[in-house]
Amino acid sequence: MLKDSRGTTGVQTSRLWQVKKPNLATLAALAVAFSLGMATSTLWAKHPRIVAAQGHLARAQEELDHAVGEFGGHRVKAIEHIRLALRECEEALLVNP
User: Fold this and answer.
1) Which positions ≥6 away from 43 have C-beta within 8 Å?
2) Global pTM?
């Protein structure tokens, strides 16, 4: 039988090696993240230009969202056009997955 540093026998696990059981929310979040990652990587492999364009459009929208000033309504109109373009990209990927 093996003895530990205190000379006792028996199996004791240190706190470092004890693993808590993940809760349901954690497992669900991991499952969703994994499936989204797989879906995105699959779409990226099949349609890299469309997926890249979605990223560029999202960044452009974020910049316009944080821009100071209204620019005579043109900033808001540009944001609307970007939202429409993002929707068109999503629909294109649904039609040709």
Assistant:
1) 50, 51, 93, 97
2) 0.56
